[in-house]
Design brief:
Blueprint lengths: L3 H16 L19 E2 L5 E7 L1 H23 L14 H13 L5 H9 L4 H22 L3 H18 L6 H27 L5 H12 L21 H6 L6 H12 L7 H6 L2 H23 L5 H5 L1 H9 L6 H10 L4 H11 L1 H5 L10 H23 L2 E3 L1 H5 L4 H13 L4 E3 L17 E7 L1 H10 L3 H18 L4 E6 L3 E7 H22 L12 E5 L5 E7 L3 E7 L1 H9 L4 H13 L3 E2 L3 E7 L5 E7 L2 E4 H11 L3 E6 L3 H7 L3 E2 L7 E6 L5 E8 L2 E2 L2 E2 L2 E4 L5 H14 L1
Parallel strand pairs: 2-3, 2-4, 8-14, 11-16
Antiparallel strand pairs: 1-2, 5-7, 5-8, 6-7, 9-10, 12-13, 14-21, 15-17, 17-18, 18-21, 19-20
Helix pairs in contact: 1-18, 2-4, 2-5, 2-6, 2-7, 3-4, 3-7, 5-6, 5-7, 6-18, 15-16
């Protein structure tokens, strides 16, 4: 069960947020888009890839398991150990134990001493937390990114995972020990960290950092029994842990709904009109008040009634049966603690009992417990959603390797900037800084004309589609991490993921389609392949939904403005294509590629740009993202040659209406080259957008520009 002090402390954080009409749950958000390193997921969310050094990850599991073992040893098995057999204390362990003793006087001193002084117990866990927070704080200053709250959410997830690995014996005992000792240590460690690093900061910065670190840490993160997020609000285990009666909460919620949050202070008197309701409030008040009595007087004897419901009922019904020694303790505390004076009055009976009134209807402890529980549930649900954004990449990177080989692979991924790496040395950066986050774009592929041509050419159309086309396309996409198929049909497919992954998939897909066509035709490479249009776009945030249909099966729907742009970018109107080809022939010029943008005179006196795409197009936003994601792994250069210089290299080709602009990206790892030419500025989905074409490096234009043009234009 939780200490009543927690409710006052917690409500002091919630009250100002709620008074401003805001949600405390928003403080749990892992704002991945503001971090310099994240990867897109299949569900359109951004994930933070991380690896944790084995020395750090083992501390969580070992320390929590040791706490469990010591608690069973001293609290369940009642073993006695002499003081000289316990490990020696250092100043940190001594302060840690002193803090926990002040909060939980009923815990055996040997338990707290043993775990706090254990080098692999509380001390190790305290150091790991401090190191992870320190590492995130320093990275936060370097990147000006919200690393601190994000890493804190990961810390809470690792605590939950470690508690979840405990044996399933003594479940309620585990709950109490983990929430009290582990939660108490976490709160103490967090306050020390914030005092050290944030204490001297600007006031607004300090409060914001406090909120984003303290609010996500609900006691529910430290429970051994972890109901699903959708069951938390009605979980009897959780409700009892807050000192409340499980059957009381629905009534309090119903009354608050009627009177409104502003008048919720009147909930308890309204409950008193119902005899059963008043009895449950009375039990909750007595439980919480006795805990406060134990805490303030440092007398753990009161905790037996706090933790045992049957004993509490017996105390409320017949306080006269209290032992004389306990009555003396009550007498010494009656001036400062209403529960003590009330118990003595009821024990005396007669007029004293009648005049004792009903303190449970006037004190705020039960109401605060209810308020805090309701907000904690919202926070815990949100934090669990956010903690899932941390993606453990250890297994993917090591690929079954162990020891030095695994460490070398992890170190390489860290140096390449592909992961966030938590190391024992807190002075090291969280990531290598050599790569940036991949924003999520989409690639629209239109292959209906290609399939029409192929099904006429190949001998067995069914076999081609079922054994070659579909399996190979799906396999090709699956080989690229962070690229997902949102839609596939006879007209084409819609892919979503990092722009770099989309460009690579598009390149490989065009090569594969070309090979199939050459194998199916007698002319081979000399033949003209049926049209395949591609357009990659990056614009707007993604919205994602999944649903199941009884006949159609499971479907996903991911949408952003990029989908509209990519759809508009694969337009292939035959009339427009013929018009542009006629102008090429009239000028006796050949096209640079398959993405054609040309101006068309309108009756208004203005020129409109029309598009015909028989190639691989990228919007300017997608190209900018590609360049940004590769800037530390490739040489990125932009060229704007004069008309005369461009014509000297490409004399027989028709240049774009707005002049030639070339962007060249050459990878430092494998010397792979991406060459882009600006085709023009058409309107895609109502937005005027510069459109670029990815040029085939084996084509005449690609060879000319790369071998002859670029050296001249430098």
């Amino acid at each position: 069960m939780l200490s009543p002090e927690y409710f006052d402390y917690r409500w002091s954080w919630y009250r100002p947020i709620l008074q401003q009409g805001e949600s405390a749950a928003k403080r749990c958000r892992v704002d991945a888009r503001r971090l310099p390193l994240y990867v897109p997921g299949e569900d359109a969310r951004e994930y933070v890839p991380y690896v944790m050094h084995s020395q750090i990850s083992s501390v969580f599991n070992n320390a929590v398991k040791r706490l469990y073992d010591y608690s069973v040893k001293y609290m369940i098995n009642k073993q006695r150990v002499s003081a000289h057999q316990l490990p020696k204390m250092n100043p940190v362990a001594r302060e840690m134990m002193k803090h926990l003793q002040s909060l939980y006087p009923h815990f055996p001193q040997t338990l707290l001493h043993h775990w706090c002084a254990d080098e692999n117990g509380g001390l190790a866990l305290f150091k790991v937390w401090q190191d992870m927070w320190t590492q995130s704080w320093r990275q936060d200053q370097e990147d000006t990114a919200p690393w601190v709250p994000a890493v804190n959410v990961l810390v809470l997830r690792l605590i939950r995972d470690a508690i979840g690995r405990l044996p399933n014996e003594h479940a309620e005992h585990n709950d109490h020990v983990m929430v009290s000792v582990l939660g108490g240590l976490y709160d103490w460690a967090l306050r020390l960290f914030l005092k050290k690093f944030v204490g001297g900061a600007v006031e607004m910065t300090r409060i914001a950092t406090y909120e984003t670190m303290i609010i996500p840490a609900t006691p529910m993160a430290f429970f051994y029994q972890q109901p699903d997020a959708n069951l938390l609000a009605d979980s009897r285990i959780m409700i009892k842990a807050y000192g409340l009666e499980p059957d009381l909460l629905p009534r309090m919620r119903e009354i608050r709904l009627k009177v409104g949050a502003k008048n919720e202070a009147g909930i308890l008197p309204l409950l008193a009109q119902d005899r059963m309701g008043e009895h449950m409030v009375k039990r909750s008040w007595a439980r919480l008040a006795l805990w406060t009595l134990a805490q303030k007087t440092k007398q753990g004897v009161w905790m037996q009634w706090v933790l045992d419901a049957k004993k509490l009922d017996l105390l409320l019904a017949r306080p006269e049966k209290l032992p004389d020694a306990v009555v003396k303790l009550l007498a010494s505390a009656q001036k400062e603690h209403p529960v003590a004076s009330w118990l003595l009055a009821v024990r005396e009976g007669g007029k004293a009992a009648k005049n004792a009134a009903s303190p449970w209807l006037h004190e705020d402890v039960v109401l605060n417990a209810f308020r805090v529980f309701e907000e904690d549930v919202k926070v815990e649900v949100t934090r669990r959603e956010q903690e899932s954004l941390w993606m453990d990449k250890t297994a993917d990177i090591t690929a079954g390797k162990k020891g030095k080989e695994a460490n070398a692979l992890i170190e390489k991924a860290y140096m390449d900037g592909d992961i966030v790496y938590f190391q024992p040395d807190a002075n090291k950066s969280l990531h290598g800084g050599t790569s940036l986050a991949n924003k999520q774009g989409c690639l629209r592929v239109e292959w209906s004309d290609y399939l029409a041509g192929m099904t006429i050419t190949v001998k067995n159309r069914m076999e081609f589609l079922s054994k070659y086309f579909m399996p190979n396309v799906m396999d090709l996409v699956s080989q690229h991490e962070h690229v997902y198929i949102d839609q596939i049909s006879a007209s084409g497919c819609l892919l979503r993921g990092s722009v770099k992954g989309l460009v690579d998939v598009g390149k490989e897909l065009r090569v594969q389609l070309r090979l199939w066509f050459e194998e199916a035709t007698e002319e081979g490479a000399a033949a003209s392949m049926p049209a395949v249009s591609m357009c990659a776009a990056l614009m707007g945030d993604w919205d994602f939904a999944t649903f199941e249909h009884p006949k159609l099966g499971k479907h996903t729907l991911a949408f952003s403005l990029a989908v509209s742009q990519a759809d508009a970018g694969v337009v292939r109107d035959v009339g427009v294509g013929r018009l542009i080809s006629y102008r090429d022939q009239k000028m006796r010029k050949s096209p640079l590629g398959g993405v054609r943008v040309d101006s068309l005179e309108s009756g208004t006196g203005h020129s409109e740009y029309v598009l015909y795409n028989n190639g691989f197009a990228l919007t300017s936003q997608a190209l900018t993202e590609l360049c940004a994601s590769m800037q530390n792994k490739a040489v990125v250069k932009e060229f704007r040659p004069t008309s005369k210089a461009a014509q000297s290299v490409l004399p027989e080709f028709r240049l774009p209406p707005e002049g030639l602009k070339v962007v060249c990206i050459r990878s430092r790892q494998d010397d792979e080259v991406y060459l882009f030419i600006r085709a023009g500025r058409p309107a895609l989905a109502g937005v005027d957008t510069d459109l670029y074409e990815l040029i085939d490096m084996t084509s005449v234009v690609g060879k000319r520009i790369y071998n002859d043009g670029l050296p001249r234009w430098k």
